[in-house]
Each structure stands twice: as C-alpha cells, then as structure tokens.
UniProtKB/TrEMBL annotation, chain A:
Keywords: ATP-binding, Nucleotide-binding, Transport
Protein name (database record): ABC transporter ATP-binding protein
SMART domains associated with the record: AAA
Pfam families referenced in this protein's UniProt entry, alphabetically: ABC_tran
Family stated for the protein in its record: Belongs to the ABC transporter superfamily.
Protein species of origin: Methanoculleus frigidifontis
TrEMBL record, chain B:
Topology class, membrane: Multi-pass membrane protein
Species of provenance: Methanoculleus frigidifontis
Main subcellular localisation: membrane
Localization, UniProt: Cell membrane
Keyword Lyase: no
Pfam families (alphabetical): FtsX
Transmembrane portions of the chain: 24-45, 271-294, 315-346, 366-384
Name of the protein described by the UniProt record: ABC transporter permease
Keyword terms, alphabetized: Cell membrane, Membrane, Transmembrane, Transmembrane helix
Domain ABC3 transporter permease C-terminal: 277-392
Length: 229, 400
C-alpha cells in the first residue's frame, strides 16, 4: 500500500520559488492500477519521482507498506528501488552501451541472481514484451516502441510489487501504446502488481482502476474508472 | 560485496568493450610511456653505478684497499702483510702498489700525473688493466726500465687533453723521461698502452715496484695494497673479516675510497630521477583524470539511470575504478614490452659515459615500484571524477 500524506515539493531556482506539489494526500491499495493525470506542470512527474524515491518531498511523507521511505538513507533508498520498485521512464532511459538483454538483467545481477537464472528470466521477459528476437540489439538498433518495451522489461524483470511509469507511451504511436498498456494490465492482473502511471491521454483511462487528477500541484479530483468497478 | 564487484565488473567490461577504442588505446599508450619513463632513468642510474663499481674494482681499487696507519706514508713489511691477507678466507688476490706523483717528459711536452710501482703478477690477480691493452704488452716481472701508460696520458699527436694530463702521441717503444719528487729522473721505454675508460687510470702509468722503490729508496714498503675478494658486493663483510684477523692498517672498501665523486654524481642523478618520476606521475594522474572525467561527464545521464534503477553509487564508482585498473594493467604490460625493447637496444648499443659504456640495469624493485605507483595514481585519478559524478542528484543527472 502506498500512502501519501500532505506531500509538498518546492523547488528554488535562484530567488524564485516553484511549488510543484502543494499538499497531496492519497492512498493506493495493493494491486491497484492508478493513473495520474493532469495538465503539463500540474505536478504529475514530481509526484511520481517522489513515489519512486528519485526525489524527496519538501514536507509531508510517503509510506510504502507502512514504511516512511523518506527516512531511508540514500543507500537504503537505492536498495528499496532495486528490490521493491520498477520504474519506466518517459524517454526509456536505457544504457546505450548495453544490449536489450543486458539492460534488462543489470538489476538482477545487482540482486545476486545467478547468471543462468537471470539470462533465462531476461530472455523470458523480453519475449513477454514481444522482443524475443531483439535481445542482443543495442538501443541504437531498436525503434522507440522497442526501446520502451526494453525499459518495461527492465522494470518488471524482478517482479517488483510496485511499478511506476512516467508517460510510458508519450513517444509511441497508438498501436504500440495500446500493446504496452495491455501488457501493464496483464501484469496488474496476473501478478497483482500495483501500477502507478502518469498519463495525459484520455483513452488510457479505460485501463486504470482509479485516476488521481492533479491541477497546479493539488489533487483536482480522484475517481474510480470502469476497470476499477 | 561479491555481487557489487560482479555488477561493477560487468559495467566496466561493457564500457571498455563498447566504448571508444581510440581513446582506450591512446590512454594505454600514455600510461605505457609513463611506465617506460619511470623505469628507464633508474635503469640508467643503476647502469652508471654498476659501471662505476665494476671500473672501481677492476681498474682502481680492487674490492678493498689497505692503507698505511694514520701518520705513516707507507706500509712497512708489505710482504708479510700481503701474505697474511692472502691467507684470509675469501681473499683471492692482493697487489701492493707504490704510488708517487711524477712529471712525464716526452718530445718537449710534459704532463703531471701518478706513476704506480707494481708487481705485474700480483696486479693481474686483482685488476684487469692487463686485459685492456690497446697497444703493446703489459709489464712482466723484471721490467725495471719499462712502463705501461694510460691512453689518455699517452695521448694523440696534436690533440690537447682538454685539461687532462697528456703527452700527445706517445707510441709503444718510445722513451719517456720521468721526474720523481726527490728530483731524480729516469727514462722508461713504453711497453704498452692500455685504455680502461676510467679517467684516473687512463691518465696514469705503471712500472714495476723495483724501479720505483729503487728511485725512492724504499724497501719492502707499499703505499697501498689492493685486495680482491671472491665475491663482489660484500665488501663490508670482507673488511670486517680483515680487521678481525688483526690487520692493523686502515682498510677501506672501494666505495669508501671513491665516495666523494660518485656519491655526488649519483645524488645528482637521483634528483633528476625524482623530478622525472614526479613529472611522469603527474602526467599519468592528469591523463587518467581527464579521460575518466570526460567519460563520467558524458555518461552522467547513464550514471543517473543506473542509480534510479537501484544500482548503488559505490558499484558505479567501482566500475570506473576497474576500468582504470584495466587501463593501468594494459599500460604497464605495454610499458614492460617497450622498456624491454629500449633496454635490449641499449644493451647492444650502450650509452657511452666518461667512465665507460653504461648498460641499463633494470632492478625488479624499480619495476615493482613503478607498477605500484602507476596503479596508485591511476586509482586516485579514476576514483575522484567517478565519485564526483556518482554523488550527483539522480534527477539532475537524468534530465541533463
């Protein structure tokens, strides 16, 4: 379960103070597929960064499975990201020097998984995202959709309990977007993964159990969707 | 810990494997040249010391020199002392010498230098001057009117000695007049000319003990007795042994005898070597630092991504340190190959110093020290930029 309590985030750019989040509170139950929506600058990505332990709130707190993750040291947060979270970036964020499978298995390697096991699991998860024949290709040899699938494979390879995705379909055509959202839905249903996904596409809403809509750093609305009923 | 090393090795290997080959080769070559520089100069210094030691033992002093007791000009009863010393275990030769300052006259030219009176057979047991005859022959017993002369003192017709004593063109068979300090003059026939490339020896001359003793009125006396030991390099031990056998005279090692000049030369060399080593290591630090700094700056986003997906900062730093270790290892290996080439060349074509040909001597300790310093500076120079970049905020790094 993810609990956000009065989370604020203030950036200081010289003398200017930007209040990206102004006190956001919500709870996300285990196994929910939640969409975070809102206009550009509403604080969606900032919120996801805080949930993904890539950033710390200025005030308020975030509890994941009852644990105040802001109190973790940098090293503990790194370990938490490795073992509990999967994160899909909007721009894929692959390591260009690594092949598809190497990008996928690098976190398994860090978790101490045996070589035989991580190679098997890496190939398996790439097959699941439809890249079974592209495992030894590097980023420059993959299309945008394929790169995003590699990024997703990397995020799910260790079967994290929480998957966070920051506009994963932003750079993809609608057909590829649909296949990726179908994959998310399947993961959510098959593995009971909690998925929090930032999106600004109206048609994505049919995949979400619930939508948290942000406006100017505050929750504008929170509503259940068809998938959640 | 092992997992961390495994990930760091994986990342380092992939970066080396798929990074810029040109930069990699250039860096390895620079490290290799730094290694050559770290090893080369000390090997020349060792070569100079080796040459000096060999020359000192073979031409000037033997391993040890026995001199008169303080206040005495000569060792008296030299025969007895010589026999006593020869009975000491480990002593393989002795050569009593009478040395005196003289003036040589030849075809209206004169030169002031030293004349040694020796027993040719004894001298052969200690020095190797007899093996360095360039013209004529070495002395034999009974050659009371013969002299062998150093090549510099004999000189070449029309060539001044550049400050060194020279008679400018003495040939074998020529007669040379010698004026002794007591005013006596004797004429010697030149039996041979030797060349050792040791300045002190090549500007001197040798005749038999009998000839000098007769002129100076000495009997069974010597200015010094040179001693040859069975093994070189253990002179202190042999000196102690001689003293323990009751030798009353002063006993010096060849190093003590030649200390002033050589010590100064070695000190100067070592200052040059220290500066050269420091400059080389600074170059290594700067090069590795720049390479890793540019590498990490260019990979700032990747480092951010790795941290974002849960790779520990220390693993990322270690991956760069491993790359540096790889570069330093290859650099040292290439350096060893290059150094071997240079050493091989200089062994065939030795450098010629005033003291003679100098062959580079590579000491294992120097190689080990060079490798260790190269690794130490490389690790420091690789660690700092990697550490600086890896501690950057994740979002700042990713969003760059």
């Amino acid at each position: 379960m993810i609990v956000a309590e009065e989370v604020t985030r203030v950036y200081r750019m010289g003398k200017v103070e930007v209040r990206a989040l102004k006190g956001v509170s919500f709870t996300i139950a285990d196994g929910e597929f939640v969409g975070i929506t809102g206009a550009s600058g509403s604080g969606k990505s900032t919120l996801l960064h805080i949930l993904g332990l890539l950033d710390r709130p200025t005030s308020g707190r975030v509890l994941i499975n009852g644990r105040n993750v802001q109190k973790l040291s940098d090293r503990q947060q790194t370990l938490f990201r490795l073992n509990r979270l999967g994160y899909v970036f909007q721009d894929y964020a692959l390591i260009p020097e690594l092949t598809a499978i190497e990008n996928v298995i690098v976190t398994s390697l860090a978790r101490g998984v045996s070589e035989k096991e991580y190679l098997k699991r890496g190939a398996e998860v790439l097959r699941e995202v439809g890249l079974g024949d592209r495992i030894n290709h590097r980023q420059s040899e993959l299309s945008g959709g394929e790169q995003q699938r590699v990024a997703i494979a990397r995020a799910i390879v260790n079967k994290p309990s929480i998957l966070l995705a920051d506009e994963p379909c932003a750079n993809l055509d609608s057909e590829t977007s649909k296949s990726i959202l179908d994959l998310f839905k399947q993961l959510n249903e098959d593995l009971n993964q909690t998925i929090v996904m930032v999106s600004h596409e109206k048609w994505h809403e049919r995949y979400f159990c619930r939508i948290i809509d942000l406006k100017d750093g505050l929750i504008n609305s929170m509503r259940e969707c068809d998938a959640g009923r | 810990m092992l997992e961390n090393l495994r990930v760091a090795s994986f990342l380092a290997f992939k970066q080396v494997q798929r990074g810029s080959k040109g930069t990699l080769i250039l860096t390895i070559m620079i490290i290799a040249l730094v290694f050559v520089n770290l090893v080369f100069l000390p090997s020349i210094i060792s070569g100079v010391i080796e040459t000096f030691n060999t020359q000192s033992i073979n031409f000037n002093y033997g391993n040890l020199v026995i001199e008169p007791r303080e206040g005495d000009q000569y060792i008296s009863d030299a025969d007895t002392l010589q026999k006593k010393v020869e009975r000491i275990p480990g002593i393989v030769g002795t050569s009593p010498r009478i040395s005196t300052g003289v003036t040589y006259f030849y075809k209206g030219r004169d030169a002031r230098s030293t004349l040694y009176g020796i027993n040719p057979q004894d001298e052969r047991s200690v020095t190797t001057i007899h093996e360095n005859m360039v013209r004529g022959e070495f002395l034999s017993a009974g050659d009371t009117d013969k002299i062998v002369m150093g090549a510099t003192l004999a000189g070449t017709e029309g060539e001044a000695g550049g400050g060194l004593p020279t008679l400018q063109g003495v040939q074998v068979g020529d007669s040379v007049e010698v004026a002794f300090p007591n005013g006596e003059r004797r004429t010697f026939q030149v039996k041979g000319i030797y060349e050792t490339q040791s300045i002190g020896v090549d500007t001197s001359a040798f005749t038999t003990t009998g000839a000098v003793a007769q002129v100076l009125g000495l009997e069974n006396q010597a200015s010094e007795i040179l001693v040859k030991t069975a093994v070189n390099g253990q002179e202190e031990m042999y000196r102690t042994r001689l003293l323990s056998y009751g030798i009353q005279q002063q006993v010096f090692t060849f190093r003590q005898k030649a200390a002033g000049f050589v010590d100064q030369a070695i000190q100067s060399f070592e200052i040059i070597n220290a500066i050269s080593t420091l400059v080389s290591l600074i170059i290594a630090v700067v090069v590795v630092f720049i390479v890793i700094f540019i590498n990490t700056v260019n990979k700032r986003r990747q480092i951010g991504i790795l941290k974002a997906i849960g790779i520990d900062k220390q693993i990322i730093i270690n991956s760069y340190v491993l790359q540096v270790l790889f570069i330093a290892t290859l650099g040292a290996l290439v350096g060893i190959v290059l150094t071997s080439g240079v050493i091989y060349y200089l062994t065939i074509n030795p450098l010629v110093f005033p003291g003679g040909p100098v062959f580079p001597v590579v000491e294992p300790a120097t190689v080990a020290r060079s490798i260790a310093s190269l690794f130490a500076v490389s690790i420091v120079a690789g660690y700092i930029p990697a550490w600086k970049t890896a501690r950057e905020d994740i979002l700042d790094a990713i969003q760059r």
